[in-house]
Design a protein that fits this description.
The protein has 614 residues and is of the alpha+beta class. It contains twelve helices and 23 strands. The chain has helices spanning 6-30, 76-105, 114-130, 135-195, 202-215, 281-316, 419-424, 429-432, 471-481, 518-521, 530-570, 574-607; strands at 40-46, 50-54, 57-61, 65-72, 222-225, 231-235, 238-242, 245-246, 249-251, 255-257, 262-264, 267-269, 318-319, 331-333, 339-340, 364-369, 374-380, 383-393, 399-408, 411-416, 443-451, 457-464, 492-495. The strands form eight sheets. It has a five-stranded mixed β-sheet with strand order 15-14-18-19-23. A hairpin with a 4-residue loop joins strand 16 (364-369) and strand 17. The two termini are 29 Å apart.
Length: 614
């Protein structure tokens, strides 16, 4: 037989269950704007019925309701998809930021970029070719050369700063990753302890999933949950978090990189000392952008290398307007800017200059090593300048005589690469000093037949064209705007060190083609002109940036879809929660009203019946 007060207990259970559901609804509403919060709900179940005898046998009478658990709404498949795609999104965003900064470095929209400096340098040589003896034109060449070198160096310094900034960001990322893994370990432990009694640590789980959300921005990761409710975080095959254990990332000691003039760093796992290489996320993007920025530094180095090698070689073919043309002959230089007729450097040379560098050190011979992408710089203590010519018989029986400049001497060699090439790009101090503009080799050498005092024709010998000749200035300007197959040579330059023969043309009309040797073929820009090489570099930068923007936009849309997918499950809907609130409020009121009714019935039964015997 059922207890007299069984109905009261049924209503109390209903009151408690509706009150718990109402409290949970309030918890949802107050956390609607909490980042990472998952909507919670109370799972209710009917309590075990009580057997009561009836005319047809035993029947089960309900005893009310009870709560079995409070669970959070979470879609684990949406979470895994979000973590995977967030890493890709952050990879694109980090690269976008770097592209924006690099594009600002190579911004040619105004008159302050490298493109403008190249154009002005070309115009200065072009003007000099038409009026080679004008001092103002020669000075303009020097000034525009200094501007070009300065802008290449400025862009390179900004790239170095950008690389250093990326390393700083990488260090901050490593610190943040370690903070997140520390928090994950603590939350794993708290969740395991809390849920050991059978409860569900919903809010702690939300906090943990939010940390994983943030961690996925930095690296690619996979998440696994064990039977104790603890997460294991695996990235690129390395278990970063395993329950209550974790690995620590750290930046290596700085490694001097002389090629780029910076300090390089690697990310290592502190406990094992092995390198950590993520495959996605902002950390991977930072590594990739550093390598990409080094590529732009290499481009600046190649342009500077072209000036120090190919451009210098062409300049060495011509002659300046200093000295007396009739005194053309062998001379020696010691790097001081002075010229001497003898090796002992005692008798001053009074003829015109030739075989001189426009860029770099006056007594250094620069050659391009294509195999190692560097410059071999040979510093000669006493550099000998000489002239000669070659003879070639033509098909019609005529003879073509081509002048040849020879530079020789012994010295010490060193290797220049990367930022060291860029730093070496300065206008020759002999040219930039007072009166040095006359050394600029705008005119060319020729081969002329001499005459004796009697008027009889004598032998052939190299000579200098008139002071107004600007042929070599034209040749130098073509190096800036025309590719290798369109550049013509007017003379030979031979470095007599036993191995280096830098030009091997036979006639003044020969094009410099791939059959030529060493410096004029082994060029840092391959066959491109300076203008074409730089324009191609900037065009590729713009194309890569635009392509990345498209990828980033598509990835943002994908993340939005996944976020909406997650929110449809775990997000708090105000309309739904308010409807639930009204429903649970009505349920609470109904149970209370029913309890009151039962109480009145029992009061009547106890206090108003049983009058017999009084």
């Amino acid at each position: 037989m059922r207890s007299t007060f069984a109905g009261l207990n049924t209503m109390v259970r209903g009151i408690y269950s509706n009150q718990l559901s109402l409290d949970t609804t309030g918890h949802n509403i107050t956390n609607a704007s909490t980042e990472g919060y998952s909507r919670q709900s109370v799972n209710l179940a009917a309590t075990r019925g009580q057997q009561v005898s009836s005319i047809y046998g035993q029947v089960l009478v309900g005893t009310g309701v009870d709560s079995t658990s409070i669970e959070r709404a979470r879609n684990v498949y949406a979470d895994k998809q979000y973590w995977s795609e967030t890493a890709q999104q952050q990879y694109y965003k980090t690269q976008q930021t770097n592209y924006d900064k690099v594009e600002a470095i190579f911004n040619d929209s105004g008159n302050t970029g490298i493109k403008n400096a190249v154009t002005e340098f070309y115009n200065a040589w072009n003007d000099l070719s038409t009026s080679a003896s004008t001092a103002s034109n020669r000075t303009a060449v020097i000034e525009k050369g200094n501007v070009l070198a300065d802008r290449i160096k400025t862009a390179s310094q900004q790239l170095q700063e950008q690389i250093n900034s990326q390393y700083d960001d990488m260090s901050l990322s490593v610190t943040q990753i370690n903070n997140y893994t520390d928090q994950l370990v603590k939350l794993n432990q708290n969740i395991m302890t809390t849920e050991a009694t059978g409860a569900s640590a919903n809010d702690l789980r939300d906090q943990r999933d939010l940390i994983v959300d943030n961690l996925s921005k930095y690296m690619n990761l996979n998440v696994y949950e064990d039977d104790k409710g603890m997460y294991s975080i695996v990235s690129n095959g390395i278990t970063m978090v395993n329950g209550i254990n974790k690995l620590t990332l750290e930046m290596s000691e700085p490694q001097a990189n002389e090629k780029y003039g910076i300090n390089d760093y690697t990310i290592n796992i502190k406990e094992s000392g092995i390198a950590y290489l993520p495959t996605n996320g902002s950390l991977k993007a930072q590594m990739d952008t550093i390598a990409e920025d080094k590529g732009y530094l290499d481009d600046m180095s190649n342009i500077a290398g072209f000036m120090l090698t190919t451009f210098n070689t062409m300049h060495q073919q011509g002659a300046g307007i200093d000295g007396t043309d009739s005194s053309l002959g062998i001379y020696y230089t010691d790097g001081s800017g002075k010229k001497y007729k003898d090796k002992d450097l005692t008798t001053e040379y009074t003829g015109p200059s030739y075989g001189e560098n426009f860029w770099g050190d006056n007594n250094t011979l620069y050659t391009w090593d294509a195999e190692n992408s560097c410059i071999k710089a040979t510093k000669v203590e006493k550099l000998k300048h000489g002239t000669d010519f070659t003879e070639t018989k033509n098909a019609d029986g005529t003879v073509t005589r081509t002048p040849k400049v020879t530079l020789s001497g012994t010295g010490t060699s060193s290797t220049l690469d990367g930022i060291n090439i860029i730093n070496a790009l300065t206008v020759n101090t002999a040219i930039s000093s007072t009166g040095g503009q006359n050394i600029i080799a705008a005119r060319t050498l020729s081969v002329e037949q001499g005459t004796e005092k009697t008027g009889k024709l004598a032998g052939y010998k190299p000579a200098v064209n008139g002071s107004g000749d600007g042929t070599n200035a034209t040749n130098l300007s073509t190096l800036i705007n025309m590719d290798q197959d369109n550049v013509t040579s007017t003379a030979n330059v031979v470095y007599s060190d036993g191995t280096a023969s830098f030009m091997d043309t036979t006639t003044a009309a020969d094009k410099i083609t791939a059959t030529l040797k060493n410096n004029m073929v082994s060029r840092s820009l391959d066959k491109d002109s300076v203008n074409a090489y730089y324009s191609a570099m900037v065009a590729k930068l713009g194309s890569d940036s635009e392509s990345l923007d498209d990828k980033a936009d598509a990835q943002d849309k994908l993340i939005l879809q996944i976020t909406n997918w997650r929110s449809s499950t775990s997000g708090v809907d105000w309309n739904e929660e308010l409807s639930n609130m009204i429903m649970f409020q009505k349920g609470y009121s109904a149970c209370s009203r029913c309890l009151t009714t039962m109480d009145e019935m029992l009061d009547k039964l106890i206090n108003s019946t049983g009058m017999v015997g009084r």
